[in-house]
Amino acid sequence: MKTRLDIVTLLTFVMALGQSGSVQANDRDQGQIVDLSLIVAENYPCTWATGFPRFYMNRYIRIGPSSPYNSDLLQIDGNTGTQIDVPPHSIPRPGSGLKNAGPLGLEYTDQTPAWKLVGEACVIDVTSLLDQAPNGVSPLIKKEHIIAWEKKYRPLGQGDIVLLRSDYSDRYYKPMPEGRRFLALPLEKKSPAWPDPDPECMAYIAKKGVTAVGCDSPTMGPMPDLAAAVHDEGLLRGLVFTEGATNLKKLPPTGAFYCMMGPRHFKGPYGEGRAFAIVGGQADSLIKSARAKRVADLSVVMAANYPLTWPGRGVSRHRHPYTRADFFYEPALDIFHHTHLMDSHAGTHLVPPAYSLPKPGFNNNNYPPKVLQWLKEYEVKFGKRGTSRVTADKVPLSQISGNARVIDVRPLIGTTQNSQWPASPAITAAHLEVYEKKTGKLERGEIVLFRTGHVDTHYKPLPEGKTCMENPINGLSEGWPAPDAGAILHLAKRGIRCVGTDAPTLGGVDSKQALFTYWTLGTQDMVGVEFLTRLGQLPAKAVFLFASPKIKGCHGGPGRAIALY
Description:
Number of strands: 28
Strand content: 15-25%
Number of domains: 2
CATH topology of the largest domain: Glucose Oxidase, domain 1
Radius of gyration: 24 Å
Largest sheet: 9 strands, mixed
CATH superfamily of the largest domain: Putative cyclase
CATH class of the largest domain: Alpha Beta
CATH architecture of the largest domain: 3-Layer(bba) Sandwich
Distance between the termini: 42 Å
Shape: globular
Helix content: 10-25%
Structural class: alpha/beta
């Protein structure tokens, strides 16, 4: 028999869903997703070779006696792996009095419009230039290469993303010490450098009105002395760059949808990212949306004075705070280069199965006694908890991309009693059934997004921002609505493999219920995307895309979420 609170909640839900409108059925032909990103790992040449901080991952939280979860501390510089450059990488801020200063000098990674990250891939084959230069020198891509491509295919224009394919990273990005050929040996003038455009070529491309330019070389800068000029020709015109792409040979010359995304670092002049393309399927409609700038950014800005990282209940249970560390000063821009230290679940991020599931062979007696008791309860009710080796880098991009179904769960806010706190209102299978009766059944491959409104309301600078996580998890206010294990099982039966929320976590603030939710997600081979924002801006039909840097063995993944409509 349902309690009075359950009945009131369901009635409220029915009323809310009746106002939400219908959602189109899922387009099952999503197309082929092609990953164009380099793996990031400590034994790869993934960071710039001349004095920049090296990538480092500390596996500082591990499933065992101290925790039922895995998480990592990342030290990652924006010039790591496949990366994005935005205008402030070359343009000083307005009012600085420096050469070329202007408004684009404020378009950092947190301010870059989402529509600049997407478009139609125009792949220009310059593989004939590979290694065709002396040691320490780059073979130059000329505007004649671009003009020849245009004569063969079509003129470049607004909404296009030019990708310069040399196959350099495909050939030379390898584990160390062999990987020294990628960056170190060209810089030491012991091997030819990577092909890159000369300034005249970049100027020609930029004047065509394209959105962005990408290359499969370590940087959009020819050796030995044209890098600054090439950057200026593009970034001063508002372009963004993808550097360190790979696998461009898998794309057709035109017609593929291209996307490059990474975390929205506050005042970041560049940033680590993930590039991918969609060939066939929905590619044409996504390209049309990109050209029309119908692109919504669903990611929070990453800044040290915001509540980005799990603070833990009580004292000394927090995860590593998001930290920015400055190094080399750049006088021409009046900025420091910087790296970041952060927990792998900071900001808008991915939750892979291995976050909560141990590896095969794990001895459950290694859990703390309380967690071991919870596991026994869980397995009686929901079946055996699984195991997993699926870290973020092993999650297929196709699993975190698809047609969005936004479920408004805001009517659940205020349905818990103060005496129950810390507690989150539970999103149950019954709520999902009510939703489906109003809008139609959830379809296999769709991305289910829970709209709680919590991050929209409470993501504010600290100390006011304590209302986002610290107060709810310590029982000083109600937690955010969160799906229980039964709701996750219901979604799994529908073929849903990715669930997102505009709350800090899918687990909510009750430790036991949160663990049940994450165990169920992982056991069902599902993933989560947490800490979204502004889900209310999405229309009934939209395509959701999420990507985080391809970090080997990472148990989370700070990244970026967008939607096209």
